[in-house]
Amino acid sequence: MQEHSDSELLSLFRNPDQKNYAFNMMVRRYQERLYWHIRKMVIVHDDADDLLQNTFMKAWKGLENFRGDSLLFTWFYRIATNEALSFLQAKKKRYLLPVVDVEKELVSSLEGDSYFDGDDLQLRLQKAILTLPPKQRLVFNMRYYDEMKYEDISQILDTSVGALKASYHHAAKKIENIIKND
Amino acid sequence: MNQKENTESFAGRVEKKNPFTVPGNYFDSFPEKLSKRIHAGKPEKISTVERVWQVLRPQIALAAAITGFALIGYFGLRTFVETGQEWLSDEEITGYMEYYQDDFADYYLLSLLEENDFYFEEDTDIESWYYEDDPDLYIEYLYQDEIPIDLLYTDF
Fold first, then answer.
1. Which residue from A70, A72, A152, B79 has the least number of CB within 10 angstroms?
2. Which range of residues forms the domain containing residue B102?
3. Is B118 part of any domain?
4. Which residues of B touch A180 (CB under 8 A)?
5. Mind listing the pLDDT tens digit of every residue in chain A (182 residues)?
6. Number of domains within chain B
7. Which domains does chain A have, with CATH numbers?
């Protein structure tokens, strides 16, 4: 299969005859990274699957107006991030629960998740990550697991690099303390 | 700030790998599943009136049900309470009263007088008792040619 750059795929997408093909290529290129990004936030596979579909549905509708001010993958990540945060916010409102209870529910989902094959230490690490506020959790996951550059995270979350570094530092410290005292 | 310094203490103990998994062939089948969803027929657009009706319909049904139950309750209770009673209209009540009033005047009054040994004088025209309510008799009386005016005054 011929590899196209993002800009080539965007050009193909604007051609009605190539639109489906181009979008399919984009989906195949980014689906895994976006899925794991969402999954680490919402924990449950079915929720992550729904949100990934919503992400690409919104991308399909909005791609016509994508001006190319940012990289395509940054744009996809931003949509996925908004979907995940909106989902968690809606969950909190739906059950009239304070944030801490949503996190408890996520921990409970994690413990009963049949699609989790980590060992006990990894489970403890995930539980520690779930104690972080959602945005701090995003920063930690993107930096620690996805090994993204601060500059890219800054574009996705629309936050300064300095603030991201401080946020990651606090998150790592908190997790370290939780694991040490666990 | 060196990020490795922040995480190396627990990263050294916890293997840095993604602990989550997905169902088999999930990523292989996802593009096709997404494509079907994208190209699935868009839901039919509903007009504003239909949308408003859809919102109001359950509320109207509820209001109608409550009204229906209230009416059934009211008439049921009323029927239960009124069982064995006859309700008369105002006209019927007036008719009865007039009928028995006349009956009393004619029959009971005469009986009462007789019971109390009250007798009319022989030249008393008893029938004139009955003339009182008949205007024609008055008119006929007045048409008589020879009515002394002093007698007329006396009569009235």
1. B79
2. 90-155
3. yes
4. 9-10
5. 568 888 889 989 988 999 999 999 999 999 999 999 999 999 999 999 999 999 999 999 999 888 877 889 999 999 999 999 999 988 877 766 666 677 788 888 888 888 888 888 888 899 999 999 999 999 999 999 999 999 999 999 999 999 999 999 999 999 988 888 77
6. 1
7. 1-96 (1.10.1740.10), 117-182 (1.10.10.10)
**Closest CA of chain A from B51, distance in Å:** 24
In a domain, B47, yes or no: no
Q: Report CB contact under 8 Å: B19, A145.
A: no
Q: Which amino acid is at A15?
A: N
Instruction: Please tell me what DSSP assigns to residue A156.
Output: H
Of A57, A119, A145, the CB nearest to B38: A57
* Predicted complex ipTM: 0.85
C-beta atoms of A144 and B35 within 8 A: no
CA dihedral B122, B126, B128, B129 (to 10 degrees): 130
Contacts of B17 (CB under 8 A, 6+ apart): A118, A122
